[in-house]
Design goal:
single chain; five-stranded antiparallel beta sheet; alpha+beta
Length: 202
């Protein structure tokens, strides 16, 4: 039998069991890699969406304070569906307070707005022990605007200094939105692979 005939008959038999297993393993690895890449893209997209929401809320609160010439702020609350932010205005011109909000003196200007769900939400990323300035973080509270969780803006553009932390679903990546008291500006930092890096300044 000629070599050509032998090669032709081998080709007619098709792939062996080992060939099928190797091919399946390669396809499986490709699928896992693609799924991981897609998952990272979804988490990063969710973090950017949360950042956009927070940015819009800050702009609305600060501009409303200047236009109305009244203290205006965001009250953060936790609930079964996650953390929300709601816009309030100072009704008696003595500053925003939880007591006045409870009594209806400081009035709501918006419905509660969810701050991320699923792929990204408020929270500290895994392994974070210090804030972007290097100060130690105590506890796991992602909202750090004083004991009342109120981020206030004055007609003079000053604000309650503090930070809102957000993380992706895996906890590997996190963002910190740091509000400066002197001018209400926001610096955005990214936590990735063990360190903070500034990525934006509003």
């Amino acid at each position: 039998m000629s070599e050509t005939t032998r090669a032709s008959r081998r080709g007619e038999r098709g792939m062996s069991c080992a060939d099928v297993l190797v091919t399946a393993a390669i396809l499986g690895l490709c699928a896992i890699t693609a799924a991981g890449a897609l998952g990272r893209q979804l988490e990063q997209s969710a973090l950017k969406s949360l950042a956009t929401t927070f940015h819009a809320l800050v702009v609305e609160a600060s501009s409303t304070a200047v236009i109305r010439r009244q203290n205006t702020g965001l009250l953060f609350r936790g609930g079964p569906s996650g953390i929300t932010a709601q816009l309030y205005v100072d009704g008696d011109r003595d500053g925003l307070s939880l007591t006045d909000i409870r009594d209806g003196i400081d009035r709501s200007l918006s419905s509660p707005i969810p701050l991320g769900q699923g792929a990204a939400q408020p929270g500290l990323p895994l392994g974070v022990e210090r804030d972007p300035s290097g100060n130690s973080l105590v506890g796991q509270d992602p909202i750090r605007f004083g004991p009342t969780d109120l981020l206030s803006f004055t007609p003079h553009a000053t604000a309650t200094p503090g930070t809102l932390y957000a993380r992706d679903a895996s906890g590997q990546e996190g963002w910190a939105f740091r509000v400066a008291g002197i001018d209400g500006r926001v610096r955005v930092y990214r936590w990735w692979r063990g360190s903070w890096t500034e990525i934006a300044h509003w």
